[in-house]
Amino acid sequence: MTDELGFDGKVAIVTGAGGGLGRSHALMLASRGALVVVNDLGGAVDGTGSDKGAAERVVDEITAAGGEAVADTNSVSTPEGGAAIVQTAIDAFGRVDIVINNAGILRDKAFHNLTPDLLNPVLDVHLKGAFHVSQPAFVKMREQGYGRIVCTSSAAGIFGNFGQTNYGAAKMGLVGLTRVLAVEGAKFNIKANAIAPLALTRMTENILGGLGDKLDPSLISPLVTFLAHEDCPATGRIFSVGGGRVAEIFIGETKGYVNPALAAEHLRDHWEQVTDHRAYFVPENLNDESGIFLKALS
Length: 298
Ligand code: NAI
What we know:
Elements: E1 11-14, H1 20-31, E2 35-39, H2 53-64, E3 68-72, H3 79-93, E4 98-101, H4 116-144, E5 147-152, H5 155-158, H6 165-185, E6 190-197, H7 221-228, E7 238-242, E8 245-249, E9 253-254, H8 264-274, E10 280-281, H9 286-297
Parallel strand pairs: 1-2, 1-4, 2-3, 4-5, 5-6, 6-7
Antiparallel strand pairs: 7-8, 9-10
Helix pairs in contact: 1-7, 3-4, 4-6
The structure holds 1,4-dihydronicotinamide adenine dinucleotide.
């Protein structure tokens, strides 16, 4: 490998970086010269409790390795918390170039048993948390004409998984946020992408079985590092990543069936055409999709 991807002077916020994937991202970015805000509330997997030491310990690791970082223990789950996290970056390093939305919690339950206390905190941390942190950062990024945002989605939402309506909805919501940020950020050299990781952390330690050995969190961070870099070619994209494998997940639309006098029976009779995956488009954004739509009608 030549021409290492460096981050000299770039300022990165990594939320939920007191352990697991976030810690790994923070260590990798810092080792390549980024100035890092290590944010973490330090709670349990279900979001209860807090440990102010979690972020500090990762900062100590970064500092010991010769990097530069500051700890932040605000919660991403409120607008005030998000603003405070971005302010930590401004106070310590004077700017913010990169936001890695990674903080997360789990409160799994089959849908018929889901209660508001299992739903709201999950939406607050994953989905609204990304809004709360990204928005004040986005304002700065627009002003400076540069920014990179990475949201942590999940296959649980993109593809569906039992017991995770709350988590899945939040994670797929992040795809929507990412895609609109890509559209709104384009003019300002702000790129936003989403990842769907698979790695052995405290969140997954009981479900991965023997596969866990192959799924070190450090194998997620190279993708996050690339998406956070100036050289990142992608925006508005989703990537599956784990165990050293990286692949793009994309949202396609079939060629479809057109009938100006459409009735339910036509759909019964032409369902195969509606759902024929052999030919499809991959729209970049709504404008793109509208164009395809109008062309099909003409
Ligand atoms: P983790 O539990 O080790 O990391 C999540 C971190 O977020 C924790 O350190 C926690 O203290 C922090 N956090 C929780 N609520 C917070 C809040 N309100 N404010 C600030 N920090 C908060 O688990 P892991 O696996 O590292 O998860 C990282 C992200 O990756 C999460 O968003 C998770 O949903 C996502 N993910 C992980 C997968 C995996 O295979 N490990 C699979 C798919 C998605």
